[in-house]
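Q: How would the structure tokens look for this protein?
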Amino acid sequence: MRRRGVTHSWLPDALGVAWTLLAAVAVMAPLLRPGISLGSFDLLSRIGLTHHAGVAVHSEFPADQILYFAPLTNLAWHQVHSGQLPLWNPYNVLGMPLAFSWQSGVFSVPVLLSYLVPVHDAYTVIVLAKLVIAGSGAYTLCRVLGMGPLSAAFGGTVFELSGPMLHYSGWAMTGVTCWAGWIFACAILLVRARHRLRDTILLALAVAAAIYGGHPESVAVLGLSFAVFMVVYLGVRARRDGAALRRPIVDLAVAGVCGLGLGAPLILPGLQVVQASGRAGATGGAPFALSHLSDLLVGLQGTDFRVPSPYVGVLAVALAVVAVALRWRRPEILAFAAVAVAAVLLTFKNPLHILVQATPVLGRVTWNRDVMLLALAFAVLGAAGIDALIRNELPVRMRKWALGALGGAALVVALVSVAVGVGAQHTTGGGTRARLGWGAAEAMVGLVLIFASGIGKPSARHALGSSARARNGMALVFIAAQSAFGVFAGVGFWSISSSYFSPTPGVAALQRTVGSSVVSMGPCRPRPFTYPYATEFGIRPNANVGYGVHEFAVYEPVLPTTYFSSWEAVSGQQLSPSLRRVGLFCPQITTATEARVYGVSYVLGPTGTPGPSGAVRAGTVGGEALFHVPGSSQATLSPLPRSGGALPTDARGTPVAVTHPSAASLRTVTDAPSEELLRLRLTALPGWHATIDGHPLPLEHWAEGAMLEALVPAGHHVIELRYWPGLFSAGLAAAAAVLVGLAGASVIAVARRRGARRAG
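A: Here is the predicted structure in token form.
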């Protein structure tokens, strides 16, 4: 009898979780085939050495997948598998932080899982892990709030298959927000105070996992939504039940501080990198247009390739309305309704958003990221609506609200369909019409089921509506319809390829010719894949990482501003402010002197042109001219000026050979008759430490602070540099202290419980 009871207790949750996980797998079905890799490799086929005729481009929206996330995932994977911590990217400009650039997320749970699979599957595993974490977290949150497994399965699938989560799944933002459900669930458990220590530890771990997801803006957005939820939730509980506020607030604060401590190994050095970059003074992105409000129901295409359709589905929106109407007295319902309202105000264009953007500190955050928390709020509220239907709460009112919400949604879909038909609001297309068709079908399914079941009608003729089995069956149909819409709307989003960073003949020729030397590939634009394409050469930054080519260019939001000031001082050229804002640095070298300053040994350019003055033509690769710069090197030794002044930035020096024992270290040997200046073409960022013959060697900055140099005494010396920020060590110490504290508290708690049992 006990075995049957246990089986009965866990089986519904097992089925609910399985449904949620299978929905994530189903939407990624096109990727889960042998030899297929996730990533917008097709975009590379349009330009430069990666040009490949006959490739159909799927979409311009996921450009960052191939220009940032897939290449850095590839780099981190190879460094880990070679026994290194993925701290430094040596392939772009003169090196950039890898772990502490935030968005690489090399220590996040999804990326840690990706290290366990072949490299061509790593990025796919990251995206799948985010969806699974998001769905399972929303499922757990719904269960913590007292909803049944069917309702929780609805909430889990709505969140993981929503437009904001799915379309941003390849970006760092979802590495943070995928943990939202877990954070809210652990916080609610902590407020209930049944297992305070356990729930403190769980909440701290969830907060740390979100931080390691790698997107500070999304951490801020998630933190604001969490604060809104807790203010309303705790306030309503205190007013309704007289619950104390001090203890839960203290418990939440302790858990939050512990989470920050566990995330300190990324937070401390990461903030140091951000402060040196243009991102520290950047402004946040623009809100969604009000026309996107209708996209909450179905999600339309053709609005803006930079903005994902924020759809959650007709049923999710309608059932959320039902939940608020029927359960508005419950603190969790009011709290998530407040989260939804705050998200709408911060996501869509309105006076409040304009005011926030004008605020000095808050204006630096792109608040439209809150659309992901809007999806979570609708997922939980929609699940609450399903739960109210299953429990047959207030039948007559439920019928009215359900029919009204579904009817209103159907009317909106119809109006948008008319607008699409005449091209008034959105670009027409098969995908748009199909989504509208799905939205209309969802609304009709809901209306037909409510009418057919007779739910809310007390007469015997409509007794079906009062049957628990019938209501569960209706909920299953709603879940199936919602899941089908989410899979259909998202399954066509993925850009996939059967070739994973496979070099074209031009790329292969470049690899053979330049080896480990630094190559300049000329200017590039913020929007790289629009016509015309022939004005760009070589390999698009940062895609060069995937081919193992060192490029004097980078696409990195936390790029130090010293690169732009240094280039302007050396060349007299000013790069576009739009490039500075997005961290896109790809200058056009016009002289050998400019190239030598930065250690650039090769320059690509159009055929039929003389190339940079002072450079020597080295041949042609992939239809592009390649020029060699004599005397350029990653390190040079220069005698000090006799006048005692500073050595000019463009002073030529004697090349010195450099080796790289690892990606985050270098070694060189000097042999000079007198004291000389060793100039390294290495990005000057905190964290580099040098030794000479095993003793500390002070490092200085040169070229407007962009690179490192050191004064080397006469004689034969071995000089070694290693990248390991001091704040990384401090962060590790802080995280260790938190772990020790939590472990100690756990031991004490266990000892007290055992003592209490013995005393009893």
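The radius of gyration is 29 Å.

The first strand starts at residue 37 and ends at 38.

Upvote if useful.
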